[in-house]
Amino acid sequence: QVQFVESGGGLVQPGGSLRLSCVGSGFTFSNYAITWYRQAPEKEREIVAVISVTGDNVVYRDTVKGRFIMSRDDAKSTVYLQMNSLIPDDTAVYYCKAVFPKTDTRGNIWGQGTQVTVSS
C-alpha cells in the first residue's frame, strides 16, 4: 500500500532553517517524480517544489526560489526539502506525494504531513 511519511517540521524563528524529509513506500520510488505541497490555515493546498525522476531537475514556486532546495535519495526512498531564510508565510503543513498518472487512484493518498511554524 502506498504511504508517505513526512517529518522534520517544527517551530522556527524568521530567518531560520529546517530540513524536511519524506519517505515513500508501497511503490517503486525511483520511477516517479515527487512533489512537495503545503497548506496554510484557511488556504488552498499549493505546490512548493517538484523533483524529476532523475533528480537533476527541480521546479520551485516563485515565493521559495533561492530559499528552498529539494533533493532525493532513491536508495532511501526519501525526498528532502531544505528550507532556509524562513518567513512567516512559510507556515503550513507540508506534504509530499508521488506524481502518479491522473487515472491512478494512488494519487489520492496523502501522508499526515509535518507542521512548520515560522514565528518569533
Task: Explain the overall architecture.
By secondary structure, the chain is an all-beta fold. It has no helices and 10 strands. The strands form 2 sheets. A 6-stranded mixed β-sheet has the order 2-10-9-4-5-6, with no helix packed on it. A 4-stranded antiparallel β-sheet has the order 1-3-8-7, with no helix packed on it. A hairpin with a 6-residue loop joins strand 5 and strand 6. It is globular and about 40 Å long. The mean pLDDT is 96.
**How helix-rich are the residues, as a percent range?**
under 10%
Low-confidence stretches: none
Strand line-up in the sheet with most strands: 2-10-9-4-5-6
Structural class: mainly beta
Q: Give the H and E element order.
A: EEEEEEEEEE
Q: What percentage of amino acids are in beta strands?
A: over 45%
Number of helices: 0
Largest sheet: 6 strands, mixed
Query: How many whole angstroms does the radius of gyration measure?
Result: 14 Å
Q: What's the rounded overall pLDDT mean?
A: 96
- What's the end-to-end separation, in Å? 40 Å
- Shape, per Cα inertia axes: globular
The number of distinct β-strands equals 10
Secondary-structure topology with pairs:
Elements: E1 3-7, E2 10-12, E3 18-25, E4 34-39, E5 46-51, E6 58-60, E7 68-73, E8 78-83, E9 92-98, E10 114-118
Parallel strand pairs: 2-10
Antiparallel strand pairs: 1-3, 3-8, 4-5, 4-9, 5-6, 7-8, 9-10
Throw out a few tags for this protein.
4-stranded antiparallel β-sheet, 120 residues, globular, mainly beta
Structure, briefly:
By secondary structure, the protein is mainly beta. Helices cover 0% and strands 46% of the residues.
